[in-house]
Amino acid sequence: MKFKFIAAATVFAMMSLFSLSTVHAQEEDPSPAPVEVVELDSGNTAWMLTSSALVLMMTAPGLALFYGGLVRKKNILSVMMQCVFLMGMMSVLWAICGYSFAFGGTNPYIGGTDFILMNQVLPDGGNDAIWATEMIRFVFQGMFFIITPGLICGAFAERMKFSTMCVYSALWGLLVYCPVCHWVWSDAGWLYSGKYEALDFAGGTVVHISSGVSALVCAIVLGKRLGFGQAPMPPHNLTYTCIGTALLWVGWFGFNAGSAGAADAAAVNAFVATHLAAAAGVLAWSAMEWFKHGRPSVLGACSGAVAGLVCITPAAGAVNPIHGIILGLAAGVVCFFGCTSIKNKFGYDDSLDAFGVHGIGGMLGAVLTGVFATSELGATGGLIETGEFGQTLNQIISIVATAVLAIIVTFILLKILDATMGLRVTQEEELQGLDVTQHGEEGYIFL
């Protein structure tokens, strides 16, 4: 009996101690919460990969045909080679260090080395959604890195040495594009949030202002083409230019709507606003030509479409489609004067109007974003909605900062390259054409 009592007491004590220890463990060392499984959204992934392909198409064949048709026939291959070579060189440079310099680090002014050689971007055996999402941003943003120096090529077309163009484009991408991209689109950037937050949905500042202002400096430093102003230099194939315009227009849907980062309502709004801005740009530029020259031209209609697309780029996620029409009309008129009256007054040879369309159109779009931005789309309200000048002022600050950096770095780079490599081909080579002298090929061979 005594043994049974002791045994029962022992079992009871052990059960009590177990219960107390379990409660204590639950209080002091709780079980970890279940890990949330992050899954890759197939719809968003498909849209972003498609958008990346559309933006790449803008460089070639889009820009290659658009610019190629505007130069003389002895230089068409040189323009196409610039576009195709930049697709190769800038892609590799982006993977090595460009992406890291644009999006890495926590410094508000300069990117870091977090993503050098695609570190933290490559498959790592962990959650597929995490590295794949980073890789999507890598490849989508990389297409912007490709086309932006390609836009500058329009300013020095038909006269810059190909070797010098390669070195200039690589250095410009790292020293101008990456810093501005970091300012505007990196979480740490000083223009991304805070006191000076600037709205740039798809690259009005990062792409068009940086390239357009740099293009103007290139045109001035390199000087005019031989015979500019004395000999006629009409576009040799406007059919190419028209086809290139159509490809750019379609590709721009990936450029702007893809910048939403997902197949969502923001992408829908950006898509429609982009289309209507381009359409309005065609009408405005054609109307200006009709009024001034008595008839509209195919080149004018194409230029108006691109001007409208440039102007809506920073605003596509902050304004509605009706505002897009207003921006397109404004771009068609203002860029028309930029490519005619302003260029003629100052006499610089911006061969394919890179500054007149991208520089002026980008600055106009950035300012008008601050005017028409609406909080209904999740953006900071602009001047019309709030009656306050704050957002417009931030837009102007971003324009000035980008322009100053682009001017200083471009000028220094060109002077260094001129002293070491030389900027221009020889007079004999320029007269013969860059297709033969730089690449040993001809664009047209008729037997």
Description:
The protein has one domain: Ammonium transporter fold, CATH 1.10.3430. It contains 15 helices and no strands. Helix 6 runs antiparallel to helix 11 and helix 11 packs antiparallel against helix 13. It is globular, with a radius of gyration of 28 Å.
Layout of helices and strands:
Elements: H1 2-28, H2 42-70, H3 76-103, H4 128-152, H5 162-185, H6 204-222, H7 238-257, H8 265-293, H9 298-312, H10 321-346, H11 354-372, H12 383-386, H13 390-420, H14 427-432, H15 434-439
Helix pairs in contact: 2-3, 2-4, 2-7, 3-4, 3-5, 4-5, 4-6, 5-6, 5-13, 6-11, 6-13, 7-8, 7-9, 8-9, 8-10, 9-10, 9-11, 10-11, 11-13
Rg from alpha-carbon coordinates = 28 Å
CATH C-level name: Mainly Alpha
Please identify, by name, the CATH architecture: Orthogonal Bundle
Helix content: 55-70%
CATH topology: Ammonium transporter fold
Name a few traits of the molecule.
447 residues, mainly alpha, Ammonium transporter fold, 15 helices, globular, disordered N terminus
Précis, in short:
The protein is an all-alpha fold and 447 residues long. 69% of the residues lie in helices and 0% in strands. The protein has one domain (44-439): Ammonium transporter AmtB like domains (Ammonium transporter fold).
